[in-house]
Design brief:
homodimer; 12 helices; Rossmann fold; alpha/beta; 6-phosphogluconate dehydrogenase C-terminal fold; globular
Chain lengths: 282, 282
């Protein structure tokens, strides 16, 4: 791996570039982003060159698409005409079924491997890029077919994922999208709905007085921008709706149990699950 | 203020004792708790003496009730017979209407001032006691009548609250209970319901793989024990039910907007509110 093109040098793309460098990557990192972003990325030393998209895709042996999902889908349609034969194209999009399906149709000259690092923070942009963002996190890979994992370029990429401290986990696109509907999309909407419900019921200065650490934790995701979430919700809508329905059912059950001894079971199930969730992931 | 009795030397009671000491309190701190707890509290130097309840209440000029709400209510019924005339009795219970009403009936010989520090963490017990737990946090006081705030003992207590780094905020018991239904009880149940919904839908090891930092934030409150929450939910049930209904409505609205341009408004309202919430409280 000599030349890496990062398309979308934001939080994820910029962090991946910095993580690669920290892990000992000595090749070139080309950045493809808006003029303002590549200027900042060059200033911060996140990328080596600001390169026009077609040129970057023609030169790189690893192309890392860290754009919003809809923009990844568009890029996949265009990339085949310019990509270097045998290059590895991967992405960091938050849903995988649509992306993998599109790539199967559109990408012939390169190898496409879907990816999704379970990392992030509420701040955006290259100025938040962090070489340790992926450390200790799952990095989902959605090989299609599964035997892709044995390709030399895929094996090399997987090794880099380990070097940046993440845990590569192969999974089917369908399983991925179902899983993140619960572990990522549902918590996001639960947090957004909580903040929106509070916004409709309390004056912000009053809410601030009444805010303990728990409210700050539960609303942190509500700082996320819709610009990223629009595509995620669009491309995983049925599963997100299903997760929301199960969540609403659970809240209704708890509401019905208020003041009854049966309320205890929800706390106990939740506590047990939450402890298991933290067993290795913190 | 020469002698303070802490009834319930757990996270809150123990932290208040350590905070007082750190802020320069040189009098005696008497601890009233279970044998195991007072043993630990003495070992950690959180309290000066393990004292039987009646003796502690008879000796103290400040009595700090940091027990579960139902236990505070029972203590209020018994305290008047033993308390030192003119002593200040205060509590750290998470709901205030029932406690203040009970104290108005039961406490005659002492001054009762309801209190509620908006501080906490997911770990319990005196071993988690932290002298900085209250730093930067709101400390609600529910004087009844409001002119209580001018009593010398109340003014001295308020000064100690400031010395431990907290922000004393007088509020009526009714306003308090409505406010915390939204800022504390609703986030708790949203988090518990989220973890319980996930527990019903995913295998824990699978969930752990799919967990990003956002899921850990939104489920942190789900680690709370029902032993504390039973009383809180019991004594604030109608307002908690109302807050849950508004939350369910908001989730339903967001669910209906998935994939529509109207989804953006919820994210924008939530983001704006969440930023305002953090303006001074972090």
């Amino acid at each position: 791996m000599q030349t890496v093109a990062i398309a979308g040098v934001g939080l994820i793309g910029g962090s991946f570039a910095r993580a690669l460098r920290q892990a000992g990557f000595t090749g070139k990192i080309l950045g493809v982003s808006s003029p303002n972003t590549v200027k900042l990325a060059l200033e911060y030393g996140v990328i080596d060159e600001a390169t026009p998209e077609q040129e970057a895709f023609a030169r790189a042996d690893l192309i890392y698409l860290a754009r919003p999902v809809s923009s990844i889908l568009e890029t996949l349609d265009a990339i085949d005409a310019v990509v270097r034969p045998g290059a590895l194209v991967t992405d960091a999009g938050s849903t995988k079924v649509d992306i993998v399906r599109r790539a199967a149709k559109a990408v012939r000259n390169a190898v496409f491997l879907g990816g999704h690092p379970m990392a992030g923070k509420e701040t955006r942009g290259v100025s938040s890029a962090d070489p340790d963002l992926f450390r200790g996190r799952t990095y989902f890979l959605t090989p299609q077919p599964f035997s892709q994992m044995q390709l030399p370029s895929v094996m090399r990429f997987r090794e880099w994922i380990q070097r940046i401290g993440a845990n590569p986990v192969p999974i089917s696109p369908e399983e991925h999208d179902r899983l993140v509907a619960f572990t990522s999309h549902l918590p996001q909407l639960a947090s957004t709905a909580l903040a929106a419900a509070l916004a409709g019921s309390l004056d912000p200065s009053q809410a601030r007085m009444g805010a303990g650490p728990g409210l700050l934790d539960t609303t942190r995701l509500a700082l996320s921008s819709y610009d990223i979430w629009a595509d995620i919700l669009q491309t995983n809508q049925p599963l997100v709706a299903q997760a929301l329905d199960l969540y609403i059912d659970k809240i209704q059950e708890i509401r019905a149990s208020l003041g009854e001894p049966s309320a205890r079971q929800y706390f106990e199930i939740a506590e047990k699950f939450t402890k298991l969730l933290r067993k290795r992931s913190v």
